[in-house]
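Example 3.2
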Amino acid sequence: MHGLINRSLECFLSDTYGADIWLDVADAAGLGFEHFESMLDYDDALTYAVLDAAAFSLSKSHDTLLEDLGTYLISNGNVKPLRRLLRFGGVTFVEFLHSLDDLYDRTKLAVPELELPRLNLFADGDQGSFRLICRGPHSGFGQVMLGVLRAMADDYGALVFLEYHGAGDGYEEISIILVESSHAKGQDFSLASPVEGRA
């Protein structure tokens, strides 16, 4: 697993639950080091060991942790670049949703070694009803995307109903129902804002 993914998981646990919890998790997972390096590759087993150790230590399910990670990636001030990357996708939440089809290629331009799932959005007949399919070699990204979508809806001020429909053979599915596009005031966003963050 790419170091950016592992580093994001580390920052999420450290920022949310404290540095001591992260060090306990790293020790329980048998990492043999305290911090991931963003631009290195690690054995997938290490990532799953960290997730297992964190779930046990915090008495949370894997699904809950992964969804919370997705929310953290958008809402925490330490990882602003991802929010900015996603907000470039459109002025409205629906435009953002349609931009997800291109996210894999945009990510590859920035970090060619990073393997994220391919995302495909499908309109489901009724206006405001969509399905998002996540295809990739690792399960769990769908739960992360659920948290990302929830946080991005808040960022845009949209009211949405999201439901995770589980995993199939190499894919995960999320249903998205847009109830109201301007339910609340969205977060300010400017293309000219400086890129900040650490992940």
